[in-house]
Hints:
Elements: H1 2-26, H2 28-58, H3 71-105, E1 110-114, E2 120-123, H4 125-131, H5 143-146, H6 150-158, E3 165-167, E4 177-184, E5 188-195, H7 197-233, H8 239-270, E6 279-281, H9 283-298, E7 303-308, E8 313-316, H10 318-334, E9 341-349, E10 352-359, H11 381-386, H12 393-403, E11 407-413, E12 417-424, E13 429-430, E14 438-440
Parallel strand pairs: 7-9
Antiparallel strand pairs: 1-2, 1-5, 3-4, 4-5, 6-8, 7-14, 8-13, 9-10, 10-12, 11-12
The protein binds adenosine-5'-diphosphate.
Amino acid sequence: MSDYWWRASVVPLVFLLFSLLFWAIFGALTAALFYVVFLLLYMFLHVRQLVALDYWLADPDKRIVPDGFGLWEEAFIRINRMMRQHREEHAQRVAALQHMEQAISALPEGVVILDETYHIEWCNPLAEQHFGVDCKRDIGQQITYLARQPEFVQYLALHDFNEPMVLRGTRQNGLSLSIKLIHYGNSKLLLISSDITHLERIETMRRDFVANVSHELRTPLTVVTGFVETLNDMPNLENGMARRALYLMSEQARHMERLVDDLLALSRLEDVRNALQEEILDMSVFLHTLYQEGQTLSAEKHVLRLELLSSSNLLGSRDELHSAFVNLISNAIRYTPQGGHILISWYAQGDQLVFSVQDSGIGIAQKHIPRLTERFYRVDRSRSRETGGTGLGLAIVKHIASRHQAQLEIVSEEGRGSTFRIVFPHSRCYSEIKEDGGVVN
Ligand code: ADP
């Protein structure tokens, strides 16, 4: 600073000396005039620098720093350096902020920053979907003005955010959301929303499943307990009546047994710890055995045929594939009236392998087909039960198919018959052990 004082004083001092010299030579008036002119000129030059500085400061980002002279030049260079530094710091802060915004935007949750009166200050794209707001347009709007579900408005009004709230069937997209509000900073609020639609659906499925199982078990249990009580109350029971009651009880007990077996099979298939026990199956031998089992099940009521059109073998679990194939064959037998035809075939389709069971049975109306693999879904409940069905067979087949990366395909026409196919990927095909395929009648 002292340097500035000294440098700023040099020029006026030099001119003062000249003025004193002029006084001695030309007199006091001339010297005084000379010095006044100098001071005016000196002041003009400084004011010009100030004007240039003022002009630049009005828009420092767009205008160039003025070229100063003397002391001004140095000051301008310093200001310029400060401005550059400031701009760099600003750019770094903007980049850090953008980075944070990108990270929050990528969160699998909706995030909205609210002020203490619930006005939106910022939100990420997922929050736009969850609450039907627009992150740019709706800044400054009160969130309850845009997301107006009464439960949500009430939750915000209560100011008690210890427990998250669940918002079901939001107006915008019917989602179920879990909503949390967290206080932070200076009376700001962070609203976090998670989409729990999928979890809710699973919970509903679980509830339905328990209800279905209970419902399925209730009828046989009522029959069994009813008969047991009747038999108990009748000391002089007739032999024929007792036999009939025992027959019905054993029928219902068997149904419960089948149901429990199928439920256990399903839970085993769903157990992620239960790895697939794979082996290469000689399909000719395997399918001949199944064909024999089919004959036994049909008890000569149907015409069963086996067609082996491919000699390729299959990599898979013997027990699981046996269960899936038998399920399809048994369904074909149960839903095909006496004298009907059932064709079991094994063939190649491109580089895939297909196991197919075709029947000339009662068929299935189109509207039922997409739901057949749901647990306990039956087109005709009483027919299924009469023939010993549990309503879980196709659910088991679908599970087994997907454990083998295979697809279950169903083609059916009501009154004309159905074809159930399991299409295996090429990766499960193994080159033939035998060359002789053929048709077995
Ligand atoms: P279910 O034990 O009742 O047979 P599934 O899961 O095996 O249960 O089959 C579900 C439903 O699909 C059956 O109740 C039946 O209505 C229908 N279905 C399955 N296979 C056939 C078929 N081959 N022909 C006609 N309907 C069938």
